[in-house]
Design a protein that fits this description.
- The chain is 72% helix and 3% strand.
- It has one domain.
- With 506 residues, the protein is mainly α.
- The model has no long low-confidence stretch (mean pLDDT 86).
- Strands 4-3-5 form a three-stranded antiparallel sheet, with no helix packed on it.
Length: 506
């Protein structure tokens, strides 16, 4: 007689992820059963409540020692708890702009410029599917760094990615360009997922197992063909590097950042990097760490090229969202320096950098949503001339975020870059540090160029102004600014908190 054992799932450890996922399912039910005129109001209460409950659950788990859940397919350790906390904080901040700014198409299924779309606009219809989609993506992001086997990792990758493909095509204006960017994101994402699953198959073929501990043991013991292992590492890396926007897998980034609704662009730029880099760190630090000499030179080359390419190409951009897109590519290179450092300092500095960069990114894109004319957002940098005279406060805050990206002292960016480069130097990667510092100097040029344009150039377009729809945007921008300064002036407590928890389970 066959005996079936009931699997032990450890719901307590999974509770934050399950809370967000259940909230997303409830959001779908809201779309089905609640009157259209009430949906946005219900979502504006449900979505932040779900995120806050999940955040409190993550905080409650911080004292828990490393534990596995779902029959070993999920691991909850210090870095996962930090990553989930960062993700939820960034999501709450991003939600302020999503709720406040009318950036979404009134009817996603309507053809751009069609009579159906015109009727939807005239009726004041608002897109509300964005809220459950956002929660689904966040649940995938929370699972991604916690995955402890290849199947769970792939499922989490798709759960976080598919809603982003949809949300990228929901921009209210420039509909065709938005849909084109979403299609490009989807197609390239499908290719990267194929590479990822192909690499996972090779790792399974090498180790004869899909769980991370068993693959690690096989790598340490050199249990298989090293060529198969190397192919597996390369192909899995392609899928991960695509999500972080590293060169040469960056082609989607500028178009998607420019075409997506700006609040979603900020959400993607900040939150996706947290999930993707923590998963990357887990794989290279705890799964294939025994093959360090095989993958470290490869990732070092990718990091160097990514830093240099993102910083140089950003100089030529005349659209603020494309400039920030190439800036994010450069920052992906800086974060890869923490991966290839392969030491505890690299993990700690990466976690701090992800939080600091995510907050500043959301603040910057939040301000972009507020620079408008009669037709909507103004992203042409030439039309930002003289913005400092029209709105000194918003221009100053945008300048603060740019200085943080540049790594200027007394901002979070300086502490983040100093920590990352210190970790890389301790890891013996002096050439990577030199390229990183030079790339930061190049990046500082185009950041300061925008500041000069705002404050020291006469206004050329009187139709451009700063619009504050409600208090949410104001709260979001100022909160990001306060955190950016606080992390730059008083980073000790945050760094100490990260240091105490940043230990991967093996």
């Amino acid at each position: 007689m066959t005996v079936f054992n009931t699997p032990s799932l450890q719901y307590g450890a999974l509770l934050p992820i399950l809370t967000v996922f259940i909230g997303a399912v409830i959001g779908v039910l809201v779309e089905t059963f609640v009157k259209p005129t009430m949906r946005r109001f219900v979502h504006s209460l449900l979505t932040p409540a779900v995120l806050l409950v999940a955040l409190f659950q993550v905080i409650a788990n911080r004292e828990t020692v490393t534990t596995t859940a779902a029959i070993g397919s999920v691991v909850i350790d210090g870095p996962v708890i930090i990553a989930q906390g960062i993700l939820l904080l960034l999501s709450l901040l991003a939600l302020l702009f999503v709720l406040d700014v009318d950036s979404f198409a009134p009817e996603a299924s309507a053809l751009p410029g069609s009579e159906e779309e015109k009727r939807a606009i005239a009726s004041g219809k608002q897109q509300t599917e964005i809220f459950p989609l956002m929660l689904f993506s966040i649940s995938g992001m929370m699972l991604f760094p916690a995955a402890s086997d290849l199947i769970t990792l792939f499922v989490a990758l798709e759960v976080l990615s598919l809603p982003l493909y949809l949300m990228a095509g929901l921009s209210r204006r420039r509909r065709l360009f938005s849909q084109e960017s979403a299609l490009k994101y989807f197609l390239l994402g499908a290719y990267s997922s194929a590479f990822f699953i192909f690499g996972a198959a090779f790792l399974y073929g090498y180790a004869g197992a899909i769980t991370f501990p068993e693959i690690r043991n096989a790598v340490i013991e050199s249990a298989g063909n090293d060529v198969i292992l190397l192919i597996g590492i390369v192909f899995v890396s392609v899928g991960l590097l695509f999500k972080v926007g590293a060169v040469p897998f960056h082609a989607w980034t500028p178009d998607v950042y420019q075409g997506a609704p700006t609040p979603i662009t900020g959400f993607m730029a900040a939150a996706t990097k947290v999930a993707a880099f923590l998963a990357t760190l887990r794989i290279f630090y705890t799964v294939v760490d025994g093959a360090l000499w095989q993958w470290q030179p490869m990732l070092s080359a990718v990091a160097i090229i990514t830093m240099a390419f993102g910083s140089i190409v950003a100089i030529a951009q005349r659209d603020v969202k494309r400039m920030l897109a190439y800036s994010s590519i450069a920052h992906a290179g800086f974060l890869l320096a923490g991966v290839v450092a392969f030491n505890k300092e690299g993990l700690e500095s990466s976690l701090f950098y992800l939080f600091a960069y995510g907050v500043a990114t959301l603040g910057a894109f939040g301000i972009v949503t507020l620079i408008r004319d009669g037709q909507g957002e103004v992203t042409d940098l030439n039309r930002w001339a003289g913005l400092g005279k029209k709105s000194p406060a918003m221009a100053s805050l945008f300048a603060l975020f740019l200085l943080a990206f540049a790594g200027i002292p007394l901002t979070s960016g300086f502490i983040g870059k100093f920590s990352i480069f210190s970790a890389a130097y301790q890891g013996g990667l002096q050439s990577l540090v030199i390229v990183g510092v030079l790339s930061s100097a190049v990046a500082a040029f185009f950041y300061i160029r925008v500041i000069v344009l705002m404050f020291f150039t006469d206004a050329s377009d009187p139709s451009v102004s700063v619009t504050l729809p409600t208090r949410r945007s104001l709260i979001g921008v100022w909160s990001a600014a306060i955190v950016t300064v606080a992390l730059g002036v008083l980073p000790t407590s945050t760094l100490r908190f990260i240091t105490d928890l940043a230990i991967f389970a093996r």
